[in-house]
Amino acid sequence: MQEENIDQPDIDRIVADLILGAGDTTTLTMEWVLYLVSKNKEVQQKLRQNDETYLRNVLRETLRLYPVVPFLNRILPNNAIISGYNIPAGTTMFLTIYTSGRDPKYFKNPEQFLPDRWLRDNTHSTVILQKASLPFAVGVRSCVGKKIAETQVMTTLSKIVNKFYVELCNVREIKIDLQMISKPSEELRLKFHKI
User: Where can this protein be found (predicted)?
Assistant: First the structure.
């Protein structure tokens, strides 16, 4: 077995990624989903039809607008030309998932919560949308817990909306607090009305 030599800054980056990935990411995703669903009665009604595709699209759209891990860093393994700039191998690349998910070049009405934008039809290219919104990253360093997190959020959301109408009670507009992990600018106040 070949021994790998990893220097301390790389170890620090790897550990930081693991801590971020293992944090309260699923809980925060659920908060953002409930926030958006509570603001959209028609979305709640559609979710009650128990359509797994629509559930997945609500989750995708939530993570596009509010990625829990809004930034990624990667070390460029080879020299590359990116947008006309020569970037040498070994350069740390800092990517913003938050910005790419709101880029009007890829998303029409990027600030709006529109789960139907993820439907596969002739007017949308979901492949392009998926490449522009990478809340779980991509490739060998993507989130190992993606499937578990998606299943937990979709199952929980389905159970909630089938039993309750969710109402947002916050007076001020909730904004995204972009730090290592994105979270609501203030505690969400939700009311659950039994159906």
Answer: Mitochondrion inner membrane
